[in-house]
Fold Cyclohexanone monooxygenase.
Amino acid sequence: MVIGAGVCGIYTLYRMRKLGFETVVLEAGDAPGGTWFWNRYPGCRFDSESYSYGYSFSPELLQEWDWKEHFAPQPETLSYLNYVIEKFDLLRHMVFGCRVSDAIFDEAEDEWVVHTENGQVYRSTYLLTAVGMLSAPTLPRIEGRETFGGEAFHTYDWPQEKTDFSGERVGVIGTGATGVQIVPVIAEQAKELYVFQRRPNWCAPLHNSPITPEEMADIKTRYDEIFDKCRKTPGGFLHGPDRRKFNEVPEVERLAFWEQLYASPGFGVWVGNFAEVLMDHEVNAEYTAFIANKIRQTVKDPKVAEKLIPTDHGFGTRRVPLETGYFEAFNRDNVHLVDVKESPIERITPIGVRTTAQEYKLDSLIYATGFDAITGAFDRINIVGRNGESLRDQWSDGPLTYLGIQSHGFPNLFTLAGPQGGSVATNFPRGIEDIVDWVSEFLVMLRDKGVQRVEPQQEAVEDWQKEVRDLYQMTLFHTAKSWFTGYNSNIEGRDGIRYLIYNGGSPRYRRRLEEVANAGYAGFDLK
Ligand code: NA7
C-alpha cells in the first residue's frame, strides 16, 4: 500500500508493480500529481531545470517527453506526470478521493490496516508513505479569519476557477517561495495588491526561458551527462559547489564569478557558489551584501528596497526563492508592501485586513503562509505501531528515524521522502529515485527470505539522530528560522530547531544506504 500519488507515489507504484508486488495507491486528491495537483496558483513552477526534474528511470520516456520551458510551470509538470501514469498504465492501481485517516499495525498478522475517511479499509504487508514534504498547509493564527467577506484561500488549496484578479483589491500574506512566485503575476492583474510581509526572504532571479525544439533535441542526447552531474552534487541539482577556496580567489575574480552566478538561470546562485558561503559566517556576510545591493539596484524606492532586504538571516540559510519580476513588482503604483513586523496584523475583518496602522480593504485574500513541513502530513494520519504506540507521539519533539526510512516500533512502515532522509531539500525526483530504488531492493530481499517483519533497532535510530544532528552544524542552515529547521509560527511550540533534514548531501546519503545494504541491512531487525 502506498499513500500519495505525487512524484514519489507514482514512481513507487511503478517500481513495486515492476517487481511483482501487488500495490495500491491511496490518494486524497481527486486526481494524481500531489504537489503539482494542489498548487494551482498563478506563477507556480519549480526552480530546478525541467530536464533535471523529470524521472530518469526510462530512456524511452526521456526521449518521448519534450519540456517546453527551462523551469516548467505547474500545468506542464502536471501534464508530464499524467503522461507518465498513462504510459506505464498506473492509473488503474490508484484510488482517488480517499484520505487516509488511520494506519494500525496488526501484530498478529504482521500487516498494516489502513482506514480512509470515506470508510474504506485496506490490509497490506508493507505500508509506504509518499505523503509529500509540503502538503499540510498552515493558515495564520490571526483572529477573524472566518469573518472575511471576500474570497480567501491558501495557495495550496487554490480554487481551480480562480485565474484572474482583474479589477480586484488583493492581499497576499507571506513572502516565501510561494508568495514570491505569485506576487508578480497578480501585480499585473489586480487593481491594488497589498503584500503583507513579516520577514523578507533572500531571492535571486530565475532567468526562465522557453526551450526551443533544437535545444530539446540536444538535451535528449545529453541525459546521461545531466543525471550523472545531478548524482554528483549535494542537492541533486545541476549546480554544485565551486571547488575553489574562497580566500584563494582574488576579489575581482570573486565578484566577476558572483555576477555570473547572478546572471545565470537556476540555483547556481545558491548552491553553485563557493562552499564557504553556506558554511562560514564571514564569507556568507560578503555574499549577502552583494545580493542586498542587487535588490537596491532593482527597487526604485529606497525605503521599500530596505524593507525587502532580510536582516535576520544570511543569504541561502533559508530556502532561496527564485523570482521572476518579484522585486520589479514593487516599482508598480498598484503594488504596496505592508510591513507587518512594524505594524502587525491585528485581525482579519469582514472587509479586509487590519494592522495596528490601518485597515486594508480587500476583495480577495491569499494565504501564502506555508506548511507544517515534512512531518505535518504524517501527523495528520493516526499511525499506530507495535504496542499501541502512535507515530505522532513518538515524533512530537521531532522525527526519530533510521536513514529517514523507518522508525523503531513501526514494523513494515517505510517513510519514503520522509524526514531525515536524502530526498528532503534536494531536487526531489533525484532524491526519491535513490530512496525508492533502495527500498525496492530491500523489499525484494525480504520477500525472497520470507521475512514478515522489519524494523530498525533503537540503537540504529539513535546513531542516525547523532549523524543528522552533527550534519546540521556543518552548514549555516541551522542559524535561520525556516521550514528547514521546523520553524512555524502558526503551530504551537514550533519555535525551536527540529532535525528534519539530512544535510550530508545526496552522494553521502547514497553511500550510507549502500553501506547499510552491503552490511546485510545492518541496523534492521528481520523476523
Ligand atoms: P514558507 O517558505 O514557509 O513561507 C511562508 C511565508 O508566510 C513566510 O513569509 C512567513 O513569514 C509568512 N507567514 C506565515 N504565517 C504568517 C503570519 N501569521 N503573519 C504573517 N506572515 C506569515 O512557505 P512557502 O509556501 O512560501 O514555501 C514553502 C516551500 O514550498 C518552498 O520553500 C518551496 O520549496 C516550495 P515568516 O518568514 O515566518 O516571518
Observations:
- Residues 2-136+373-526 form a domain with the FAD/NAD(P)-binding domain fold (CATH 3.50.50.60).
